[in-house]
Amino acid sequence: MAFTHIPVLLNEVLEGLAIREDGIYVDATFGRGGHSRKILERLGPNGRLYGLDRDLTAVEAAKSITDNRFKIIHSAFSNIKDVCEMEGILGKVDGILMDIGVSSPQIDDPSRGFSFEKDGPLDMRMDQSAKLDAKTIVNTYSKQDLAYIFKVYGEENFASKVASAIVRDREKEPFETTLQLSEFIKRVIGGKPTPKHKATRCFQALRIAVNGELDELQNALQGSLDVLANQGRLCVISFHSLEDRIVKTFIKDQSQGQKVPNGLPITFEESEKLRLSTAKLEPIGGAIKATPEEIAMNVRSRSATLRVCSRLKRLP
Q1: What pTM, to 2 d.p., does this model score?
Q2: What is the pLDDT of the chain when averaged over all its residues?
Q3: What are the φ/ψ torsions at residue 304 (nearest 5 degrees)?
Q4: Contact between 31 and 105 (Cβ < 8 Å)
Q5: How far is Cα 140 from Cα 163, in angstroms, rounded to an integer?
Q6: Confidence label for 234 from pLDDT (cuts 50, 70 and 90)
Q7: Partner of 212 at 20 to 30 A CA spacing, among 50, 103, 132, 202?
Q8: How far is Cα 265 from Cα 34, in angstroms, rounded to an integer?
Q9: How many Å apart are CA 237 and CA 258, to the nearest integer?
């Protein structure tokens, strides 16, 4: 089946990357290549683009790009530093794009098990070669662990109630499909109908747990510091507050540099020189959101947040 994918914040990403014709770029979350194809359009003959994705279906889709300036690599974006080292481009990359989270084709394909509105197996693996799936978590994790996942990763107010109900009910019959679980969660939470499906937060939490998404993001951000060339750009698109908080904090921390402890006999100018010499990133603007026009064309863009920063010059 063919699934459509509309790249979010496309113009904002292209502007944020400040693409040079002869530059080296990494689309760390290729998806279906919407961003990658537009990046390639702006590259000259000597430009290079590397695409990473841990989804085997995405890697297969990338083979439709027959451009010798492009290379697709099956890898989680958390391995960006190792991949770039193997490709001989460590510290030479002019721009990195990270479009975090589940892609539209993954959501729209019931067989992948991401959607609470379409029936499919309880899977949710972004990398189909991985062992852990949502079915295993739902049917084997303890009540305490499930409650933690729902509360921390999904910010679900009824985390304990849902976890207790799942553990109690799975003894009679294990959970096998997405609709079976989503309808069960809906009944457990109860209350009046809401615009957002009552299983939304729990499904988000399970997806994050299955794929280790927050750790993946932390590792990818840390790796980008060694991957980027001086003045190289990092563009990160996130889709919920947990991700955006990590990105925002990372950029803030890496832009502040080393602070001198209070009480040391050092002038303010010397303190500032040390701080600036050890800072690694410079934020470029603040949070960027989709325009009303884009949201009207692609409703999934309404929750997207883009943050852009630049790699500060390394000292000799």
Answers
A1: 0.89
A2: 92
A3: -80, 140
A4: yes
A5: 12
A6: very high
A7: 50
A8: 54
A9: 27
